[in-house]
Amino acid sequence: MRTPLALLIASLGIVATVWWWLALPAVFPRAPIDPSAKLECVSYAPFRGDQTPHNPQLIVSPEQISEDLAELAKVTKCIRTYSIDNGLDKVPELASKVGLKVLLGVWLGRDHAKNRLLADAAISLSKNHAGTISAIIVGSEVLLRGDMIVSDLRDVIRSVKQRVDIPVTYADVWEFWLRHKEIAADVDFVTVHFLPYWEDVPVRAEDAAAHVDEVRLKVVAAFPGKEILIGETGWPSYGRMRESSLASRINQARFISEILQRAERGKFRVNLFEAYDEPWKRKWEGTVGGYWGSFDAVHRKPKYPAGAEIRNYPSWKLQMGGGLVFCISVFGAALMTLRLRPASPQTAAWFAVAVCATVGGSLLGLGVEKMLLESYGIGRWLLQGLLLAAGIAAPLLAAHALMRGVSLPTFLDVLGSPHRPTLMTQILGGTLIVTTLMATETALGLVFDGRWRDFPFASLSMAVVPFFAVAMFNSARSGKRPLAESVFAGLFAITVPYIALNEGPHNWQSLWTCAAYLMLGITLWRPRAVAVVEAASDAVPVAVMEPARRS
Fold this sequence. Notes:
Elements: H1 2-22, E1 41-43, H2 62-72, E2 78-80, H3 91-97, E3 101-106, H4 112-128, E4 133-140, H5 142-145, H6 150-161, E5 168-173, H7 174-179, E6 190-194, H8 205-222, E7 228-233, H9 249-266, E8 270-272, H10 282-285, H11 316-340, H12 347-374, H13 377-404, H14 411-415, H15 423-448, H16 457-474, H17 483-503, H18 508-525
Parallel strand pairs: 1-2, 1-8, 2-3, 3-4, 4-5, 5-6, 6-7, 7-8
């Protein structure tokens, strides 16, 4: 027992070290948001939980909005809104009670009649709350979305400007401002969006603030005599990578801290995007869309309180503890197999068990977190749940198979063969089928809808590594290569190069996921042969033979 005990200790040490490293706190010269130096402005939307502006029947209660504004008044002088639908027409009145100024947004779309109604309502609000509404933003990224042509947009802006006594502006990304400079003639100041994460060439978080400042100066030079307001800038705290742009809590805090320092030194105004995380955006923009807030969506509190350590994984101790328990469970499954069905496993089999336990223990906390944060809607919950379940089951089942010398069954063995293997081997094969189907869905998603899709590297690796270990250790060197498995292996061989090239060489989430797909493809491609006659009496010890001798 010295070998498995030594390997168990080593595995536990690796799992603990991985989580200690992942949880290292960041050190910043100042708090990302300092209550003693209030923000100039921050984007605000009141939607919580399942609330979404795409529901025209939804009216957010004034009480809910008041609760948010009371918290925001502690850290900012101003809020920016994007619409006056869904109860947001009450924001100016409620903001005045807590001393907040409002940049009132008018959401423009393809419906010209509705655009006029919203513009009229915004004009009326500006007159009724002249001391609170400091400017009207007529349209946000209308040209970027292609909802209006430039001439129609300019007509709406001029129409509003003629009827109010406060500044009027339009907001869009910097590329479209430089492309349509003529709009500057119709506005009192230029409101520009800088989102380095979403740019065509994404920027690393470490370089993002400098990039924003550099491009801002180009916009300043393009519009002499006009004030340039950074109407949106921010960084996501969670979601997929885009090339070298990594969404994380530390990167979000770093970007906020650095851009605010630059604004203070450069004497320019910044509206931070955004106040609260908005879970509903995950349906339209992928997981990353829901995590741009500086405040938590559920508790409505700052993510990074002044003086508190900033970690990417605040619950790392719980995640590490769960991983250690899981690691012990995998070794326990192997020992229980030997106790119930005595055998003489090779030392290499214990090393394979250790690999399964270490990978599973290190990634379990990540897999659970990804399921909780990335799942939106029944379909995504089902997919994420099945993949995580396969990731949890695979190491335990692989430990049993490695101790017994059992090779992976074919899909046909599990689904339709008259000579079916034992129950445990059927469960092992069924888990492999689930993993293959879930991996196929995610791979095709990354090919055809890659901009929004998350990379399932954690749960997928938890499931694939054990199957790969069983295939390498317990499979025969020659035998039948099943047709169904070969088709799936071919699919991964085709999709992996496309995903890797499309996402770029700096996206480690993509490369990790592609490696897992390739590992699964190799597992499926290998020939299958029966390793052990499991119908023998459980009371008779079964010797594990060399792979070349199995038949």
